Amino acid sequence: MAAARTQQWDSYIDSSLSQIRDAQLERVLRPLVPDGSSAVQALLHVDEHKAWLQAAASPDSCTNLALDPLCRSADVAAEMVQLLLFSTNDYLGMSAHPAVKAAAAEAAAQVGCGPRSSALVAGFTSEHRQLELELAALKGTQDALLFPTGYAANVAVVAVLASISNVAGAVPANAAIPVLQQQPQQQQGMQPQQQQQQQPQPQVVVLSDELNHASIIDGARLAARAGGQVSLQVYRHNDMQHLETLLAAVAPGTRCLVVTDSLFSMDGDFADLQGLAALRRRYGFLLAVDEAHATLVCGASGGGAAVMMCVAADIDVHIGTLSKAIGAQGGFVACSSKLRALLLNRGRSVIYSTALPVPVVAAARAALQVSRSEPWRRQHVWHLTRLVSQRLGVPAASPVIPLVVGSEAAALQLSRRLLARGFHVPAIRPPTVARGTCRLRVCLSSAHTQAQVEALVGALQQELALLPEVRLAALPHLMTQQQQEHLRYPMAGSHSSQQQQQQQQQQQGDVCTRSKL
């Protein structure tokens, strides 16, 4: 019987992988050798490069390269291919900045990785606390709390705020997870209206943009499975009229949480934060915004899209990551002091995770300092955004530029042809994006030079000319956003921009006062 069950699992795995491959959706890992001098350059073994172009598995000759010093020797270097990365989220090139590397190295030399324990046990150091205070200052909040990843931060925020309180406090780590209740079948002889009246009203309603990051959706699902009456409702992307219809239908006395990305990671467009702020003032819901891709990229001082749109005071919960423009690792939530305390006591993803290594924290702190002293980095990445948009004739609202080609095959083909030229621009396919909207996702960084970006644009134009069956399609909502004055390539570090935002926030007065939560 044991052998038969093992065979069943083997059959299941083989069948699942076969379905993924047949749909051209298989993903594999390719070992790169980072170039320590640039955040947007890497080396790849020639055998791995060939396998990648042929969509084959990684050859055994490439498995031991990693960061082996031998990779720097002349003999091995001759076997390496240099790639220019348009695929990372390191928007300001911080991961390879000398000051950031020096801070991480110094911390590692002094304390190693630091106490290896959860933050609540022994892993929280003065370095962690200083970073939290600096992040709170960046976002203009009372406090902040660090998380192991941005994903963990999103899951904790939504799960904690959408859960139903209980006297015992946080759910024990070994507690059984109840099965989600399915919608009941209509009982015999009972009218649908009567059956609906018998169903209890939800105590918490979570409203989520349909293009939100998976971690937001997972947090809402976790809350629904953890007990209580939690309703997850999805509103059409950036459709404030649809959202207001859903809000108007929420029963009085129901806690309501609206959560959205500020800069959407696959389309590169922004949430209508001004529209959300107006609805918040009208309906009194809690507003949580994930600024993962906008922190340090947008706003006069890098405060994010909420600062850029002059609505930071209307955001109750600012969620972010240290692994994108900050160039390190980890996540954070900037909020009130009492919400920080609640997350620390109820957020399972922080309670049961080891604290961030001290060198990572030191690197993040150094990146924040560099961001303040080198505002040209924000200005340069927005300049490159404008350049790509104009040269390719595609709308671009941010440094994340989607080149939509439609099918999986077309995206993979174009990506591999660029890879053959030394450009890494990944093909994005379902389930990350909707079927029929497969794309190349161009991510720009201040570490890119204008010459490098122009070289990519030229290569794209040449390859598209050789592939008449492949056509770039524009997403309609991107064309609309690019026309909006406050989103047209803001010079995020300019003094005039900062003054204008401060004046607008002052004019809002009491209407935009920060929630006490």
UniProtKB/TrEMBL annotation:
Q: Which cofactor does it need?
A: pyridoxal 5'-phosphate
Annotated region Disordered: where? 184-203, 491-517
Spell out the Pfam families in the cross-references: Aminotran_1_2 (PF00155)
Q: Which UniProt keywords apply?
A: Lipid metabolism, Pyridoxal phosphate, Sphingolipid metabolism, Transferase
PROSITE patterns reported in the protein's UniProt record: AA_TRANSFER_CLASS_2 (PS00599)
Specify the domain of life of the species encoding this protein: Eukaryota
Q: What is this protein called?
A: Aminotransferase class I/classII large domain-containing protein
